[in-house]
């Protein structure tokens, strides 16, 4: 029964996100826009561009997810759904976990699907691009999880817009560090594979523990 | 829909409610048994919603002051909260989803049966709009949709915050009738409302008037 409840939340959130397709498209456009603008900023040096390309893709994904943080729980908070969910047959922690999964599907997955466009504009070679996608897949769940904590803490603030991103920025730096070092293969000592494992570890830990923090924050929010 | 309900008893003793360092309610005490309704009355801002929120476990209060007793086991707060509906001012409706999808979501996360949805929509007077987006509904219809949650998911305890706001007079009667049925099944209803419930058996309905230091507990059953 609780699997049914769990998947009901994911299905509903994905459905809602596809209904407000404009929001999703804005995010994807923002993501690709960063890739368009940076070549203008650093100049037309192809070698330089392709060497910093993984960093740019990660930055773009990071900034886009920050942009989306504010609306993680806001709609459910404002229309009373969060309150009603507290009487559900599954715990608020499980609900938070389901919502994180839904968020990854609706915020990050569209970006990853759009990332070949960035690769094209930034002159990435195929192998590096493959590793970039892999590191994004492994690292972004942690981004979403920390973003969820920030969103839950600030959900009752009327103008919380930038507070959540500032709150979670320090937490996200390790993800960026490992995310980038999982792509660059210039040391030749297997560093990038270890970084990839670290990235996966951070994501697993974050996904396992942040639902408790999120549920706690959401409970306190009602005071 | 006629799943048997658990017999709860609510005991509130010496409940003080402080929100934003302001004492809202002081030394509240009352008891509600299974099959009884308690109507909360009082001027706007007197703390009716806050009291309901405290009963629903949203607010930090001293553990011993609100006690949901079930079958002589004390303080089964977790069980009670899962077995509870709180119909608040916010409708908990997603405007982009159809009425049916809205309800089936709530059924699913509460582990109920999907087949009850049409019946509930019909009783709520919304069956003609089952596949419309909920955003198209009027304020009264949204209220009806959020009240339909009470019908599709059987739970023992109903906490209702102004259940008849925005409803027409037919709606008032409908709310009274579903409350009546819930009491017949042995449920508990606590509602902040100014509606006089046209009930057959008045003795099951208590009224509590919240106000500045003048807390009185009357029993409509004895007066009428």
- Strand order, sheet with most strands of chain B: 5-6-7-3-8-9
Helix content of chain A: over 70%
Order of helices and strands of chain A: HHHHHHHHH
> CATH homologous superfamily of the largest domain in chain B, by name?
P-loop containing nucleotide triphosphate hydrolases
Text of the CATH class of the largest domain in chain B: Alpha Beta
Strand proportion of chain B? 25-35%
**How many separate domains make up the residues of chain B?**
2
Question: What this model shows, in words?
Answer:
The complex is a heterodimer of chains A (223) and B (224). Chain A is an all-alpha fold and 223 residues long. Chain A has one domain (2-221). Chain A has helices spanning 2-19, 21-42, 46-69, 74-78, 81-85, 92-121, 126-154, 163-181, 191-221. Chain A is globular, with a radius of gyration of 18 Å. Chain A starts with a helix and ends with a helix. Chain B folds into 2 domains: 1-83 and 157-224, Rossmann fold (3-Layer(aba) Sandwich); 91-154, no CATH class.
Put the structure in a nutshell:
The complex is a heterodimer of chains A (223) and B (224). By secondary structure, chain A is mostly helical.
Chart the SSEs and their pairings:
The complex is a heterodimer of chains A (223) and B (224).
Chain A: H1 2-19, H2 21-42, H3 46-69, H4 74-78, H5 81-85, H6 92-121, H7 126-154, H8 163-181, H9 191-221
Helix pairs in contact in A: 1-6, 2-3, 2-6, 3-6, 3-7, 3-8, 6-7, 6-9, 7-8, 7-9, 8-9
Chain B: E1 8-19, E2 22-33, E3 37-41, H1 48-55, E4 66-70, H2 77-82, E5 84-87, H3 99-110, H4 116-123, H5 139-152, E6 157-161, H6 169-184, E7 188-192, E8 205-209, E9 216-219, H7 220-223
Parallel strand pairs in B: 3-7, 3-8, 5-6, 6-7
Antiparallel strand pairs in B: 1-2, 1-4, 8-9
Helix pairs in contact in B: 3-5, 4-5
What characteristics describe this protein?
heterodimer; A: 223 residues; 9 helices; B: 224 residues; alpha/beta; Rossmann fold; 2 domains; six-stranded mixed β-sheet; three-stranded antiparallel β-sheet; globular; disordered C terminus
